[in-house]
Amino acid sequence: MEHLWDDVRATSPAELVAVATGIVYVILIMRRNRLGWLAGAVSSLIYVWLAATARLPMQSALQAYYVVMAAYGWWSWTRNQQEEGGRIHSWPWVRHAVALLAVVIASAASARLLAEETRAAWPLLDSLTTMVSLLATWMVARSILQNWLYWIGADAVMIFLFQQQGHPFTALLFMFYLIVAILGFRKWRQLYRAQTIAA
Known about the structure:
By secondary structure, this protein is mostly helical. It has one domain (2-86, 137-198). It has helices at residues 2-9, 13-30, 36-53, 57-84, 93-117, 123-141, 147-164, 168-198. α3 runs antiparallel to α4 (57-84) and α6 (123-141) runs antiparallel to α7.
């Protein structure tokens, strides 16, 4: 408990801002509000640096990807709203199987590279959560229902990673993300079913 309190007191203002804007991001995205992409961009810019200093290079690269995806997500959701009325899509199981196979192969390759070339603390877990998050973020931007299921898995692992690396508030943020991912899946599934019935 004393170690946790020391970590809490050592938390930087930058991390607190990243956590706060990250919370705003997931709440707005769950509600299908495109302003969430702006909050996500701010949070991710800060986390590029935080993950790098925590010796999680793949997480740092992932955060840079999130910044780019925030711009794409804003554009994609705007177009989706204009052309399809904010429609949510669903992937067939075969597409998920192909996507997961690609994630496993890419994770194994990048984990090996990290282990050999860097001082990465958790090369396999860092790589796996990064690859899943890359896929899930693209799925969010494309309004794919099952993105939340990928986030549930990735967030659970990232809670562990950031706690182990001395970032308790970020670990708590990912715990919050995990809860929101569960709620987000339920909400988007309701919207998906409603639009299917309406069609």
